[in-house]
Amino acid sequence: MPRIGTAGPGKARATRLGAGGLVVDWPLERGDALRLVANLGPAPLSPPPPEVSGRRLFACEPAGSSRAALPAWHVAYYLEGCEA
Fold first, then answer.
1. Which of 44, 57, 64, 69 has the fewest CB within 10 Å, making it most exposed?
2. Model pTM?
3. Which CATH architecture describes the domain 2-80?
4. Which residues contact 79 (CB under 8 A, 6 or more apart)?
């Protein structure tokens, strides 16, 4: 992923979600951003973070998950502002 090298050091923003969730944004040089959305806890997080726009690069979504909550042990990466 060639864009990773354009993430400047110290520019990431992190937001906690409940006891085990977080959202981390790494701004990239062209105005797009790499976003991590994760629930690293054993229980679903409700309400989930706002809908993420952009291209999903990876998601580990347990079976039985719903859009009403962020599933337990969920991790996903997105490239926001990406045309492709």
1. 64
2. 0.80
3. Sandwich (2.60)
4. 3, 32, 33, 34, 35, 54, 55, 57
Give every CB contact of residue 17 below 8 A, 6+ residues apart in sequence: 23, 39, 45, 49, 70
Strand partners, 34: 26, 79
Tokens of 16: 């906690």
Length of the chain: 84
The per-residue pLDDT for range 42-84, each reduced to its tens digit, is 999 988 788 788 888 999 875 555 678 889 999 999 998 865 5
Q: Where are the beta strands (DSSP E) in the chain?
A: 13-17, 21-27, 33-39, 55-60, 74-80
Q: So where are the chain's domains?
A: 2-80
